[in-house]
Amino acid sequence: MHRFNLLFWVLMLSGFTALQAQNTVTGTVTDNSGETLIGASVFVEGTTTGTVTGIDGDFSLTIPGNAENLMVTYTGFETQRIPLVQGQTVYDIVLSEGVNLQEIVVSGQGVGIERKRLTTTVDVITSEQLELAPVTQLDQILQSRIPGAQIRLSSGQPGTASIIRNRGPLSANGSSTPVIIIDGVRVDNLNSNASLSLDTGGASSSALADIPVESIARVEFIRGGAATTLYGADAANGVIQIFTKKGTAGQARLSGGVLVGSMVGEEKFLRFEETADILFEPGLVQQYRLGVDGGSDKATYNFSGSFYDDDGFNDINSQRRINARFGASAKLNSKLEYNGSAAFSSNYFTRDYNANTSFARFGGIEGGNYGLINEASAGRIDTITQELRLAGELTDITEAVRRFQTSQQLTYKPFRGFTSRLILGLDSRRSRQDEIATNALLISKGAVAEGTADQGSITRATRDFVTFTSDLALGYEFDAGDFTFTTSAGAQLFRNQDEQLLLGGTNLVEGSTSFNNTAERTTTEFFRAIAFGGFYLAENIGYKNKLFLDLGTRWDFNSAFGDDIGLINLKRIGLRYSLTDEAFMQTGSISNIVTRASFRANYGEASNFPTPFARDQVFNSNAYFGLPAYTFGNPGNSELGPEIVKSLEFGGDFSFLRGRIGVNVTYYNTITEDAIFTPAGLPSSGQLAQEANVGEIENKGWEFETNFSIVETKDVDFTVSASLTTNENTVTDAGGSPEFSVGGFTFLGSFVAEGQPLGYLRGALATIDENGEFSAKSNSYLGKPNPDGYGTVGFNLRYKRFNLFASSDYQYGAQGVAVDDVLRYFSGVEDEGRIPEEAAAQAGSFFDLAGYWVEDTDFLKVRNVGLSYNVPVENSTFSYLKIGFNMRNPFIFASSSFDPEVTGAGIGSQGGFAAGGFGYGTESAPKQYLFSIDFGF
Amino acid sequence: MKLIQCIKYGLGVAAIATLTWSCEDPNETFEPTNPNLSSDNVLGTIESSARLLNGTERQLALTMNEIVAPMEIATDNYENTQTFFNQFLDDLAIDPTDRDIEEIQYSIARLRELASAGINDIVPADEGSTDEQLAGFYMLRGVAYLLGGELFTTLPGEPMGPALPATDHLNAAIADFSAAMDLGSNQYSEGALIGRARAYYRLGNKSAAVADATLAIANTPAYVYFARYDGVQGPGNVMQDALWDRGSFDDLQPLPTMDFLDPKYNGATPNVEVNIPLLKIEEAHLILAEAALSDGSLDDAKQIMKNIVGLVATRPVDTFNDGVEGRTQDFPGSRPDNSSIMVAAGPDLPLMSGLVIDRGAEDVTIPTVSGTHYTEDEIDAIDDIDFAYESLYRMRQEIFFAEGRRVTDLGIRLVVSLTEKVGNPNITDADLEPTIPSWLEPIKAEFDAFTYDTGAETATVTNNLNRLISENRGSDLIAPFE
């Protein structure tokens, strides 16, 4: 009987399934504005049966008879569960954008919180926004896309550092680069040369250049201050959170892309067009991407890989990068979910000598080594060209970086409202820089006499950095009627280890690139390790879903703190009131005009930790004629603690005309208390400079973000967005310490002094009185590299299947130094009219003329202009096919004679404060013209 | 389900991998150990005196690096035409905010404090320490005081201490040199004797200076003590960098009368940095010559000067190709650059050949310890005391060329740095005032000036500073025996 029943049911079920398999549902997937969503996943819940929407957002899916729900997912949008209704075959599904207020953001709140409940702001870049322009490097991705942040690229050379800043420079002790977190795991964010690195001029290598940028689903940028209290440690500069794709359910989908184009050197700021003629060469850019994703509603996966290659904009630069990332998500059971990702990146590039070295070719021509080369005879230019081309061919500076990064997350939801999440992960970055200076190179540079055979050398700098993250977060949501509570708690432990070696070999035998073939070898080691972490508790209380109070506190420990410093406590409090959630605001006439009006106020504390081991008193032992040689090392400071950045902000978020106009306004005031200064040791002590918590730095200003949806029709969309951040930065207290230098040169440096902006430009200020008498006051304020204001401007225009977009950024109210022209002055070919005749005649030395080389560095740079077309793919094997053309850095408007972004000097130490503002002997970021094809099957 | 199984296993492997990879030594997970030396690793440990002494000598090399280039630029020896080395000092603008002057003060203090640590802490705790090592510390601290007394009007003699007059520093130097000598005969006590003679000389104590100088010549007739530069491990010689290594950057330019002595430090040999003479027996001879002049004994002085010429002839020279350096300023030929050019050391002095040398394909031969253009015949022709003083100081200029000594001979003294003033309440405004002799004030920006007639192939130095020394030798600032 049982057997009969079983057989009966099997037959019935299979028959039923077979019968029902004939059922097909169709429909479209659109967003709130009616825009079709291409590539959205539509699948039957609990199965691998699924499809993706086509170019018109349409889908057709054959469903099994027992299917109950359709699941519809799309990156950046809320996943929707659509109950299947018997007899209904057409489903038009509308997805809500992920960046709405119901969206869950992580933002230092433990396991995540509804965006609406947040009392601070979070900027989000979605994958769609990222895909507007080809993606190769993180800082380039962020540039002009994050309203509150400024990203300045310091050189056009491959792999170089950028200056990333929001709300002004907070610290004289460290870089302003935010913490970068990928899938909950901290990654190396060193944005300067390592302590031990090649001395090839001002070009600083950056770990940001090789962060794997494959498969980024979204980027959240959390501005430093109250929003980053719970991140503790070094989060005062803000946090960039990157979330990677884990795949969407459905059958395996292939996607890919080809990018081909050209990069050419930026000539706008060249003093001599011959510089471009001699050194620049258009380079081929190519990138190939391939990805596959799929899965069921229980488990999804995503794999993508890419190969990138360019041969630079000059005759010797080239770069090659291989990226691969795997991500997966799985529901292990009804309560336990797993998310994991792993990425590998291999990056290799060649570089020229730069800026602050007499070997620099670019700096040599631009610095007037060849006099007024534009007036030279064709024969002489020919000779110079041959000399420099030969020197280029003989230049051998390479850097190779291999990076592995992974995140492993378990999320456990044992009962309704409670979530716990454990993250383990690491980022391991190994870099190797090599410089081979052969005798032939030295002869070509004029550094040694013809016939020299014993001066060849090889230098290698290696850095092995590992950062480890473990993060446990607990969250509980409780609904008590009018009041709702979100409670978060968590603990974290991070550990960074940085091992560097600088190897030198001299008298390298010609023809070899091995240390084994050198006559003398030297080694220098650098080691730095730090363990830090903390635990936190936060409570977010909502009242009638319109008033939210946010409270949080965190205790931090850190192995860099002095022995007298225990746990550091950080606090925050925030309030948000949503006026438009009041009933009286929701009447038709009002809500049509004021769609959203929400006000927020926050106070919060964030921190930056001191340099690891800076607290310790040590002796150094140097090698001197083959024997140990003791000397005084770091003097030590048992009271060394973190800088505490106290931030107060007020603002509001508004949208009008049903979202056609959006405006965000914030006023911020941050005080860095116990700012770590490292003034020179008291000369009579003979001791080294020591970090101490003696200063105070203030930053204040306004942030405005606006976006306008000017046209919204079926065929045409036109949106414009703009942002402005103002900043006033002052060192309000130097703690009695004398002025100290944080970069630059003896004749004109970047300094820290009470009452002045951080890193202000100090040098002799020249005046000429009415009688033509010249005088120069040394050590005067000449300007500041940090701008009064900066922001972004962009638009997006869609016409049917065409999409045109542009993004740009700007700054005003900053100054910089035309250092190249100082070199030209040495050669007697300085810019005409720069130095008044009286000054030239009467000045004692060029030191007295320093002020004449300081210029305003206002600029507007168009970073990207892109045009794309979605090719109709009905009745083809493609699920989508997009072709595009993109111009990178196409237009620049600047008030200065040099590129205001590039800086060949100014970062004094590893991860040190970067003032920028020294336009010196390095090329600007190149222009690029890129064709792309993206497709999916 | 297979996928889930794979992920489960993957998760386990990845978690274990992350944990093991990132923490090599579990004991150091939360408290990473600083790999550098704590005080406990140094005090009372084996070889601690030897290692600190070696480190103090290394500091001497670093201190001379801070002193020599800017001090040479400040005088008529070198002109800083196109480099990022100090330009203010080229015009003798001595300012308390000058970072180079601060570095000089700092590096002298560091030398003194390292030596003091040796004398007071390390040697007493080191059972294996020797008298020679202790003598070394005393001698090196004596050098620190000596340099402070020669270069500064006033200067703190201890951390946070008041700025003491130069005489206090010179007396402290004498005490330390004497202490070194009391510890028996060794390389340091020999140097201490010359150092003490130099300190007595600067104090104007003629009899003591002459006694020490005479003894030193008798004991160590060829003595030189160098600030030593390690061409492999560093430090390198910064003055060598300024004179030679800077490749296509134009380097420091010597006064045409000193061309034949440049570059005293060259990088022609791989991994070799040329050492800077700090204490050498020439010092003793020059003291005796000046003492003879101050006694009115012209013939004795001339004989001593001839002895010096003989001594210099025994000193080492380097022969190397200097074609890369050339002798250009803005363009080739803008400065005297070949041996056919005749140079006069002052407007009323005769043109001489041999002061400018050829630097092309032919190798040059340059003294690395001492050089002088003087010959016995030229010395024989000196016929009055005034010109003898002028000649003796020109000889001093040549013999101490590129050693940072000229600035003291000219009577110039540096100031206490503003950084010290900010952090040290004992510093007064008076300590921030430089000393520049009144006769130099009007021409302080023109020390390096000369006229150059390319057609006639002649060059004449505009300001004969040795003449000014001779004329003003009654001043307390210069010519200490007068």
From TrEMBL, chain A:
GO terms for biological process: siderophore transmembrane transport. Keywords: Cell outer membrane, Membrane, Receptor, Signal, TonB box, Transmembrane, Transmembrane beta strand, Transport. One of its GO terms (molecular function) is siderophore uptake transmembrane transporter activity. SUPFAM superfamilies: Carboxypeptidase regulatory domain-like, Porins. Residues 116-239 form the TonB-dependent receptor plug domain. Residues 339-805 form the TonB-dependent receptor-like beta-barrel domain. Residues 1-21 form the signal peptide. It is a multi-pass membrane protein. Belongs to the TonB-dependent receptor family. This is TonB-dependent receptor.
TrEMBL record, chain B:
This is Uncharacterized protein. It comes from Neolewinella aurantiaca.
